[in-house]
Amino acid sequence: MSDVSPAPALVSAPASAPVSAPASAPAPAAPWPEDRIPVDVAVGVLVRRTPDGQEGEFLLTSRPEGKVYAGYWEYPGGKLEQGETVEQALRRELQEELGITIGPAHPWKVEMMDYPHARVRLHFCKVFDWEGEFEMREQQAMAWQTLPVQVQPVLPGTIPVLRWFAEERGHTGPTHVG
């Protein structure tokens, strides 16, 4: 018997769907059954610039022990608290988890994932500027990656982002190993 939960169902609009709410606005409510109301999550896609200004490596972190999908790799972030905007939640979460203060958060994509334990609405924001030294405050690991991603296993909610990067960057072939 496996300890791994079944893969979640992807239940949102296509990957090209724009962010439905600006990062400065509270997350929209949706009419879901009471037991499957989506949890809004702000996700930071931290991207290093290359010397010529292009988008380069991006940061993945592992989920800490004690959390669902512990050891899986994902983009850092966390749940919005009552009354928070996506950008406010992202700033708070990246300070709490990584010890950094981010510059502007650029809303990029929104994806809905239906995991066995929760339905989540992932608000992906690209972040190009930050201050501070990275501290893995939840004892997670971090890795700067390019396509194809070499760390594994990759959280199912991360896979659409890798596909979006592949489309933007003209990458052909697999987006991740495993």
TrEMBL record:
Disordered: region residues: 1-33
Q: Which GO terms describe its biological process?
A: DNA repair; DNA replication
Q: Which cofactor does it need?
A: Mg(2+)
Give GO MF terms, alphabetically. 8-oxo-7,8-dihydrodeoxyguanosine triphosphate pyrophosphatase activity; 8-oxo-7,8-dihydroguanosine triphosphate pyrophosphatase activity; 8-oxo-dGDP phosphatase activity; 8-oxo-GDP phosphatase activity; metal ion binding
Task: Describe the reaction catalysed, as an equation.
Answer: 8-oxo-dGTP + H2O = 8-oxo-dGMP + diphosphate + H(+); 8-oxo-GTP + H2O = 8-oxo-GMP + diphosphate + H(+)
What is a single Pfam family found in this protein's UniProt entry?
NUDIX
Q: Which Gene3D superfamilies match?
A: Nucleoside Triphosphate Pyrophosphohydrolase
**Biased composition regions of type Low complexity, renumbered to the chain:** 1-27
| UniProt cross-references to CDD domains, sorted A to Z | NUDIX_MutT_NudA_like
> Could you tell me the keywords of this UniProt record?
DNA damage, DNA repair, DNA replication, Hydrolase, Magnesium, Metal-binding, Mutator protein
What superkingdom does the record give?
Answer: Bacteria
Q: Does the keyword Magnesium apply?
A: yes
Which InterPro entries does this entry report, sorted A to Z? MutT-like, Nudix_hydrolase, NUDIX_hydrolase-like_dom_sf, NUDIX_hydrolase_CS, NUDIX_hydrolase_dom
Enzyme Commission number(s): 3.6.1.55
Question: SUPFAM superfamilies from the entry?
Answer: Nudix
Work out whether the entry's keyword set contains Cytoplasm: no
Family label: Belongs to the Nudix hydrolase family.
Q: What is this protein called?
A: 8-oxo-dGTP diphosphatase
Organism source for this protein? Roseateles depolymerans
Upper taxonomic lineage? Bacteria, Pseudomonadati, Pseudomonadota, Betaproteobacteria, Burkholderiales
